[in-house]
Amino acid sequence: MKLYDLISSPYSARVRIQIRLKNLPVEIEEPPFALRSNEFLRAFPLGKLPLLLLDDKTTIAESTVIIDYLEALFPELPLIPTSPVDIAHNSMLIRYADHHLAQSLSPLFIEFMSPEKNTTAIADKLDKLKSELNKLEVLLTALPNFRNRGIQTGDVCLAPIIYYATELAGWFGVEQVNDDLPVVSDWWRWANDHPAVHDTIGEIDRAHKSSIKRIQGVG
């Protein structure tokens, strides 16, 4: 199997974390065609990365679908809990990452890339980001203590999104955006104690910063 991957993508990163945590026999490669090119779209109709290419040339798209498939195929060292309530809690973290926190990041990226900075709009979007992080503080406080369980797919999906949340806030002068969120900060330290998370976050950090330098014509 091969994972076609975009190294700076938080969605690709979560699958790489899973592969590394479970030591799966999956090769990680760049796609054979340029992203969004006609060749890419003909080969892979959804036109998105990450993409899992199976040995029979079947493809599976969407990061959470890929993660669920790999968990079903390789159940050893499970990253999904077994009890119904724990499964629900794990799914809540995934939904929060994708449908709450991630949705607050794109507007800030657009503001960062805009040649004209709208300070009022930026402040409003930073407030929305902080509001989403406050939700996570409440959610992690309400859920059973993560330090009493192993890492799960909810954590794997959330970690790269948290990286980008802190990175984007820093672009606009808000350093250590999690400082007044003790449970979120503790979760972030705990997640990064896992080498697969720490190393993958380092990868996306290097790739992301290199890409921003190219866009800005620096270096």
Fold and architecture overview:
A four-stranded mixed β-sheet has the order 2-1-3-4, covered by helices on one side. α6 (119-142) packs across α8. It has nine helices and four strands; from the N terminus they run βαβαββααααααα. It is globular. The mean pLDDT is 93. The chain is mainly α and 219 residues long. It has helices at 10-22, 38-43, 63-73, 84-101, 106-113, 119-142, 153-171, 182-192, 195-216, and strands at 2-4, 27-29, 51-53, 59-61.
- How many distinct beta strands? 4
**Spatial gap, N to C terminus:** 36 Å
Largest sheet: 4 strands, mixed
Strand order of the largest sheet: 2-1-3-4
Average pLDDT score: 93
Q: How does the helix and strand content classify structurally?
A: mainly alpha
Shape: globular
SSE string:
EHEHEEHHHHHHH
Radius of gyration: 18 Å
Low-confidence stretches: none
Q: Fraction of residues in helices?
A: 55-70%
Give the number of helices.
Answer: 9
What is the beta-strand fraction?
5-15%
Q: Could you give a short description of this structure?
A:
With 219 residues, this protein is mainly alpha-helical.
Relevant terms:
mainly alpha, 219 residues, 4-stranded mixed sheet
How is the topology of this model organized?
Layout: E1 2-4, H1 10-22, E2 27-29, H2 38-43, E3 51-53, E4 59-61, H3 63-73, H4 84-101, H5 106-113, H6 119-142, H7 153-171, H8 182-192, H9 195-216
Parallel strand pairs: 1-2
Antiparallel strand pairs: 1-3, 3-4
Helix pairs in contact: 1-3, 1-7, 1-9, 4-6, 4-7, 6-8, 7-9
